[in-house]
Amino acid sequence: MKKFLSLLLSAAMVTTMLTACGGTASSTTSTASASGSSTASGGTLSIWVEKSFSEDVDQLINERIEAFSEEYGVQVSAEFIAATDYMTKLNAAVEAGNVPDVTLSNPYKVVSYYPNIPYSDVTDLVDELDAERPMFEALKEGTKIEGVNYFVPFYAADSLLFVRTDLFEEAGVDLPTTWEELWDAAVAVSDPDNGVYGLGIGCGPTDEDCENSFRMMMWCNGGKLMDEEGNIVAAEDEGLRAMVEKYVELYNAGAIPPSSTTWDSGGNNKSYLMGESAMVINTSTLYNSIKDDPNYAELFENTAVINVPAGSDGSVLFGNPSGWSIMNDAKNPDAARDFIRFVSEKEWYDTYLEAIGPVFAPVYQDLAEDEVWSSGANQQAIEYVQNATGYYGYPAQTLEGRAIASKNYYSFPIARMLNSIVTGSKSIDDAIAQLDKELNDTAESVK
Questions:
Q1: How far apart, in Å, do the first and last CA atoms of the chain sit?
Q2: What's the domain of life for this entry (predicted)?
């Protein structure tokens, strides 16, 4: 029980760190009463939805729920729950044995319940929808854990590279197409005397963006913390060591802001908005922030949003997909399946994704050719999700390995490792050894 509760605590942190902020109210409940003539499903259905970044977007889902109730003759209870409260509430429901039928989930929520996964196997439903409208391979196959889909992919978040084009032009530097070019550009555009630094990858002790950005840098250049069997290999992995050394080199060269040692997950956002960092890796919520605020009109004009470049080992980007899960103890699994089909219907789905892009990108291949997704930040977002095959523990293929990596992630191991080096409290050797030890300690707590 102690291990189980520890994993539930880790699961609760998933929502806080990975999702867009919900509304100020912890939850909103609506009930759609069945009055239609269809009885394909019938009965009642409970749906929990994590609040998104916009009340208008949430209303689109609520209207779709109401339409489902009407068409299928199902009385639906829908609860919209703030991101910070979502997993706490779900954990309590799982422990009490009183779960909703349908929830929004992602791979990290799934593995955080290891070894007692409360979600049903919906691989057949994913295959059914994929046969009707092919999904991107990275989302269909990439969301499987040991060959099982525990949720039906619905959309995916990105992590794009934001670049100050004016500073690049002044330095005579082109936009980077490889990590080598990115590192060189970071040094070239830096001007520490005037408070400008090339690369805003922080290393504050609680910097979540550091965890994701450094992992992509590491994966793209052949580094890893685990092997495919889920064995911990951090201590001996040369790719990891090379990327740690590169980060320290950039920091010491004045290409990373000294303030980065104190950043939290909002640090690089603030650094970019205040003109301190010439490049940051962030979700498209940053794009919306500068696009919609007249105070940042000049910054928006001088910003390019592009994909994180490939490295010596290709392009392995951080995958952050979300989708609809059916709980093992769902009271109406048939209606739950019908609901997931209903929200996957092409015309409505395409309209909904247009409303939430580029913060979230679609899962279906044909939309890559759609005008809405063929230019600007939307195009970058949909290109991103096609290469988003990385996950906590990558390239580990085992459920246990991914559970270990996911739980370890929420102690900010990469950020703390880098922080200890650049602040002088540990050598590179000692910091990597400490990272390896912490991973092994986490493994012992999970097994």
A1: 12
A2: Bacteria
- Condensed to tens digits (0 to 9), the pLDDT of residues 211-232 reads 999 999 999 999 999 999 999 9
Query: In what helix (H) or strand (E) does residue 414 lie, and over which residues does it extend?
Result: helix 413-422
Q: State the CATH class of domain 2-157+321-386.
A: alpha beta
Domain ranges of the chain: 2-157+321-386, 160-316+411-446
Q: CA quadruple 425, 427, 432, 437: dihedral positive or negative? A: negative
Q: What's the average model confidence in pLDDT over 406-427?
A: 96
**Domain covering 160-316+411-446 in this structure, CATH number:** 3.40.190.10
**Are 27 and 82 contacting, i.e. CB atoms less than 8 angstroms apart?**
yes
Question: Is 187 within 8 Å of 319 (Cβ atoms)?
Answer: no
One fold for both 2-157+321-386 and 160-316+411-446?
A: yes
CB atoms within 10 A of CB 136: 24
Count the helices and strands in the chain (H runs, E runs).
19, 10
